[in-house]
Specification:
The structure is a homotetramer.
Chain A (H helix, E strand, L loop, with lengths): L2 H8 L3 H11 L2 H8 L6 H11 L18 E3 L2 E3 L3 E3 L12 H12 L3 E3 L7 H7 L4 E5 L5 H13 L4 E5 L9 H6 L9 H8 L2 H10 L20 H8 L6 H10 L3 E7 L2 H9 L4 E4 L13 H12 L4 E4 L6 H10 L3 E4 L1 H33 L22
Parallel strand pairs in A: 3-10, 4-5, 5-6, 6-7, 7-8, 8-9, 9-10
Antiparallel strand pairs in A: 1-2
């Protein structure tokens, strides 16, 4: 085993993978992945909302073969996990998008390609045989957005997840201080930082500068925006609304998800419009600092929807047991972003596989120890003190 | 750009401006601005009361042009912000009052001149064309108080905000230890501290010692009081009461605000007396250490008033999103004190502009990200778990 | 002014006096005063219970002459403070009992002499002209206890406060580690510690070793017990019960207080037996670690008693505003122990005066700032969120 | 007294014994005992759940001879304590099982031998005359399990406690990093660690490598599993269920306990099946990280059972007062694991005696100070704010 392989094998938790990634990556890149908006109150709140929930275990149930197989969007998944869309991943590892997607495919869970990925829609579809979803950012030019949707349809993506919580780029102060951008604009400080992380720098030199491959030529100003978030935000359409969603619903014939939902009334309205799945998210604490934690918003969304649509949740998942708690709170699956990217940053595809392996291993263990033979049988009563009848 | 301009431009948050101010100012001056009373429990509680409130975002609303224009005291304001009255500002920057007022004027928000300002009522009125309010401390001599009111009326101030929470000076232990006073009494320690902050010291030497310009000759004992707060407190009338407020209401023909309200019953009585606006405040945690946080008192005041008067709130505002939360809790605007003064201490008028720019920028972003196209449409339901029907 | 006088004058708070005392005293003595039982959970909880309560201020009330005069046990007190009984005080300052009693007398508040004081009942009565109460520990020998009661009666003490929460000495681990005892048994470590605190050591040498003056010859074994608390506990009667209290009530013709009450049912029963005042206390967190905070027990005791007896409270008072909160919660006065002793340890009688001056000054200020012209008019509504109707 | 005896005598609390153990043991061994699963959230929660509960003391009750004698499983115990089963104890001290059992016997409390003990069922029964219970892990081979039960019956164990919360080994990351196993597999790091702890290393060399004496030859693969927990988990039967429990109930004629219960519905069902006692436990935070604290699960179990079975509780007990709180919450006794083993690690049998002595001494004191003359009279009303009528 190489030293890198040994490090991956020795990583016991997502926190371990994060530590390896922190050592390997220049600070600007690590903080771009790890950080949140403003005072990072929502970032911290997301984690706390999972941690403070406690399980009341059941015993004397045969858990010799706990099944975490489930159905997501009408098709089987080997575990209640989905890869969340992430842009700019190639800053962490060359072709990190492909690395993570291959790991997801191998693990039998869906992968969501970001509009702001550094791998094109078509390349991903050719390279990976697994379940692929496409995350759509609504660009200011309607024609550009339409083209993205058409490309995703043509490339065979089974689902479209339209993101509705990036009406503008979040105020990520760490990125503003670090001056991170894509394509990278190298200051003396960045060069120095790169020299201090030679394995990363060599990879970058060999691989060439990553680009937003799906939106080449579509962004208004190639160089604009002090941060990646700001540049993305400037190119998105903040006027996009319920009517536009209705049109998208009509245009896209396959499964449609809306990502970034928090309010029960919004959820109800989406369901009535034929949205297939709601993705409860606050963008990992990277957008509105002050947004409610995902795990707190989730049960009210579930109560509002009453089973008429599927529910995903992200933001704050770091342990396999979080997936069990999320299922108890009403989600069909949890989406993992940073967890997978820490893995890829620590060791490419092998690292991404390790991340998924850690989480599914922890979930399997949590199922055994909580008396859960089948992930589809989990109900809210598994959690201590969670109101079992809600509404909002 | 000069180094100072670069520092201002690099300030991303009010916390950054505070850091610049801390470096620039002698410790005694910085702590006079930054500190609170006794154990600073209320100071910390103010901030926590804003931070712990979480927003449940709405999506799919056109937020391409979020409007933060609003009406305050029957006249338009470009944003739901007001500059809170602050005394002794010239300790932080020469003519800081004017610097902040000009910045407020440029930003289209009202400015409140303190009775204890280092700029006179008349000079301010001549120098600045924007909306000006006058904050009234009730002096022990009724005639002196009357004269202040007459001067404010003659100078055209559109509103009078009478402060009712300084029955005595708060016990600000940092000031007592630092021995801060106005006009400054220079000890060896102060001289040394000044030498360690040469840019500040040079400014002070050039500008001359600041004075309480509005009350020259009115304070009982020019040298009394171990701290600024104590000296102010000794010169105010602790017997001033409801009858006096009624008389003031009769004498002052324009808008009348009462600043320092916390109790719903007090609020109701003021409304019944024709007070135009209630200013919920605990003086930034500088008076009664143990007072309820402003953001906790606010919704009960709003419930008690039921729309029959306008409401302002201060104490603890450090981020633009706090204004959104305050609106949701029932305030028409938030007043900012330290935030603006940190800006002025960091760079005079440019610094004050930067402070307002940061807060309005953050508010605009928070409005977009929370689905709030119009600040006047915000209701309590925006906040997680806030009781929507109250009373007290 | 001497250096010591300057230090006292510079002390702004009880925390400052505590710091001076910590510097002056050998560690074993300081920790004996400052510490609590076991993990000091109750010690910390006492303080937190005061700090977390918040006041909703009233305004526009004439507070030019706030009156903190009140009635305690049917006689006037200049302020709602009482000195709590403390044993072994002479370890901190020679004749600290007298120093504190004189300071209390000067301030017009009652002083409670401990059974375990280092000044005799008679000497105190002759030396001090103020209101004197005697705190009674029930010794194992009934005759010894009777004798104490008779001596207190003969010496003219106006009230007897029988302590009921020292069925055994608390497990004060700091004392066990430090090996503190009375009369002091000097180990090499103690001698070294004394040499490192020469002003204290010189005082002790001059004054001679302090003794438990009230119980000379009454304690079973002069040298027993690894700590002061243990030795005291071993000599008290853990069988003392309701019947004994009834007999004491019959024997003592003046005011009778019971100190160490926490449970509403106990309080009701005492009232029905003719006890004049209940003293809510957990012995400053020095006895049962895990006992409810005094400020949490207080309102339920007040509800149970319904005005049929007076109520005192101690444990955790460090600021003047705590007395205001305690009044709002139903107490007639707060008893201060460590606060006064920190003062005496810092500077004898002058230090004790300074402690009382700080607390009464802070209370007067808190009354002004909360709109409280008269301490006797304070009700529970002054506090945020405190249930105004209780019971238990 | 030897130095070791002095250290034991100087240990005032379980925390002190833990400190001695930490110094004496190699890090891998200490952390195996001290640590919990994953992020140790449940480990910390267990302690906090005891600490945050507060007692409302009663006074004026004769507590001169507090009786902590009670009945457990129909036979007398000198105190409401039981030794919890612990495997691999000989890593801490040679024959630690016997040391702890002898200490328990001397103290008049039951001892529970672990299936994974390093002392055989028969040897323990011969060596110790006290009350012995046997803790049963259900092995994958039914015949092996049956044999264990038969051996326990033949050896005269009065009760069988079947553990139901180890469906798999918990994810104890400290152990995974330290590479602890039984029998020990010595890496260079372990040898070095041993050399740094010579008194421990010498003991081990003299005593020989400890083995799982009860399951010699029964474990599937002598070398399997990266940690002790993993190896144990791999050899247990995760399919063991309610039917199996019913069969065990039929086969075992004496008292049957189920250890690891948290859910009230599980508790009710066990009671209906004739289980004699429920042992509320989350395995000391070593299994499911995210499980509810034992002291939080306890009162609901008590409400569900309604007195139809006895209840034990473990996980988080570190002070004698915890036993009083556990009694108030509905348990008949608390089981102590780490507390006793820290004692044994600090000084063998004398250390284990010291641990029990500390806890019973603290409990006696807590009983006196809370007005509890008889442990059997404790009710839930002793605790502040604990709902006295429950259910689940």
């Amino acid at each position: 085993m190489s030293l890198a392989e040994q490090a991956l094998a020795g990583a016991l938790s997502i926190a371990d993978l994060r530590r390896i990634a922190r050592r390997r990556l220049p600070r600007a890149v690590f903080e771009f992945i790890d950080g949140g908006a403003e005072d990072e109150l929502t970032l911290a709140g997301n984690r706390r909302a999972f941690e403070r929930r406690r399980i009341v275990r059941r015993v004397l149930i045969d858990v010799s073969e706990p099944s975490m197989r489930t159905s997501l969007l009408g098709a089987p998944a080997a575990a209640p996990f989905v890869i969340a869309p992430m842009g700019s991943c190639a800053l962490a590892w060359p072709e990190a998008d492909l690395a993570i997607a291959r790991a997801a495919c191998a693990a039998g869970i869906p992968y969501t390609l970001s509009t702001m990925s550094t791998t094109s829609i078509e390349r991903m579809a050719k390279a990976v045989q697994g379940r692929l979803w496409f995350q759509l950012y609504v660009l200011r030019e309607q024609a550009s957005t339409d083209k993205l949707v058409e490309r995703a349809a043509a490339a065979g993506y089974e689902a479209l997840a339209v993101t509705v919580d990036l009406q503008a780029g979040g105020k990520r102060e760490r990125d503003l201080r670090n001056g991170i951008s894509l394509p990278p604009k190298m200051s003396a400080r960045h060069v120095l930082d790169g020299m201090l992380h030679p394995s990363w720098a060599l990879q970058m030199l060999r691989a060439g500068l990553p680009q937003f491959e799906n939106v080449r030529g579509l962004l208004g100003d190639e160089g604009a925006g002090p941060t990646i978030a700001a540049r993305v935000g400037q190119n998105l359409n903040p006027a996009w609304n319920w009517d536009d969603l209705a049109r998208l619903r009509d245009r896209w014939p396959r499964k449609l998800l809306v990502k970034g939902v928090e309010h029960p009334d919004d959820a109800r309205r989406m369901v009535s419009m034929g949205v297939d799945a709601l993705w409860v998210s606050n963008h990992g604490g990277r957008q509105l600092d002050g947004a409610i934690a995902s795990a707190d918003a989730l049960p009210r969304i579930a109560d509002a929807v009453g089973g008429k649509a599927e529910i995903l949740v992200d933001s704050g998942v770091r342990r396999g047991i979080d997936a069990l708690k999320a299922r108890a709170l009403g989600a069909g699956a949890v989406a993992i972003g940073r967890a997978a990217l820490f893995g890829a940053a620590a060791g490419g595809e092998a690292g991404a596989r390790r991340a998924i392996e850690i989480l599914t291993g922890e979930l399997a263990l949590a199922m055994k120890l909580s008396g859960t033979p089948d992930i589809d049988s989990v109900g809210r009563a598994l959690l201590d003190g969670e109101p079992t009848q809600g509404g909002d």
